[in-house]
Design a protein that fits this description.
By secondary structure, this protein is of the alpha/beta class. It has a single domain, classed as TIM Barrel, CATH 3.20.20.220. It contains twelve helices and eight strands.
Length: 313
């Protein structure tokens, strides 16, 4: 049974839903890996039908497992967005083969293109820009392509701690978006402090980078777990939000929830309707069931709405 409009706001002990946060959560997406998806008996018990699900491709995961996961999710009623990490794709022939498998077996029409967390490329590709330049996604008729955004920079790309190379890449991707028929957006690394996220998004808009932003948010998790992932993923200055919380013994053992960062972003969005953060993308670091329950209880139950489209649509 598809769960089209299910909420737990009336559950005893559940706080009332914040209307601004609820509005921001409409059309949220979430990420899984094949090995975590295997543990979910039925995604319809967790997520509203129509919720976009990214399938993360970690180095060493066979493409067969990725395609099987995408096929299953599509059959259960979810738009699937698999990762295409450039540095683990050997060559153009491999890229074309992956695309053909996803389309032929799982009816995939959208993808997240990124460099991938691998130091040494496995073959010809080292960046998402090279994947876009290959023309394979346009040739295959992909309807939507997302690329990575980094609100706090990326030390793998800018080793000096600046934003120069990251910003140059975003300008390139903006220009590319004007030449492709696919809808494009930025899907970002997660961060924990709304103020630098807002400043980053506003700076992009001022620079003429108008790609819609799907902001990465870490879902509820144990604080120790979250700090471990944040360090491993290279989260920047907003890591201090977690470290400060860890110093408060009254909060140390309580699970982290993204209420504060989302509330501040939602309030800003409500006051500034043209703000270019359009969607929330969850990283379920504390487990997909925990994250999905939190999202539903805070009003995120509408699947993928019309606002998901970029201005080209």
């Amino acid at each position: 049974m598809a769960l089209l409009n299910f909420r737990k706001r009336d559950k005893p002990g559940t706080p009332p839903v914040n209307g601004k946060v609820e509005a921001l959560l409409q059309g949220y997406s979430i990420e899984v890996m094949p090995r975590t998806a295997e543990k979910v008996e039925n995604f319809r018990d967790l997520l509203p039908e129509g919720t976009r699900i990214y399938v993360a491709h970690i180095e060493g995961t066979p493409i067969e497992d990725m395609v099987a996961t995408a096929k299953r999710l599509n059959a259960e009623g979810y738009p699937v967005m698999p990762h295409f990490p450039a540095r683990i794709i050997k060559d153009r022939t491999t890229l074309a083969d992956w695309i053909a498998r996803y389309q032929g077996e799982a009816d995939v029409k959208q993808a997240l293109l990124l460099a991938g967390g691998v130091d040494k490329p496995h073959g010809d590709f080292h960046s998402s820009m090279q994947l876009l330049e290959s023309g394979e996604f346009d040739k295959a008729g992909f309807e939507r392509l997302h690329v990575a955004g980094h609100p706090e920079g990326n030390r793998d790309i800018d080793t000096d701690g600046s934003m120069k190379n990251v910003d140059d890449a975003l300008r390139w991707k903006q220009k590319f978006s004007e030449t492709t028929d696919a809808e494009m957006a930025l899907a970002t690394q997660f961060a924990f402090d709304a103020k630098p996220i807002i400043a980053w998004a506003d700076n992009l808009a001022a620079a003429g980078i108008t790609l819609p932003i799907h902001i990465g948010i870490a879902g509820p998790a144990k604080l120790q777990t979250l700090i471990k992932f944040a360090i491993a993923c290279g989260v920047g200055p907003s890591l201090k939000v977690l470290q400060k919380r860890a110093m408060d013994v009254t909060k140390l053992l309580l699970p982290y929830e993204p209420t504060d960062v989302l509330t501040e972003l939602a309030v800003h969005k409500a006051a500034n309707p043209d703000f270019n953060i359009t969607n929330v993308h969850f990283f379920p670091l504390g487990g997909i069931k925990t994250n999905a329950t939190w999202a539903i209880e805070n009003g995120g139950s509408a699947g993928v709405p019309a606002k998901d489209a970029s201005p080209k649509a």
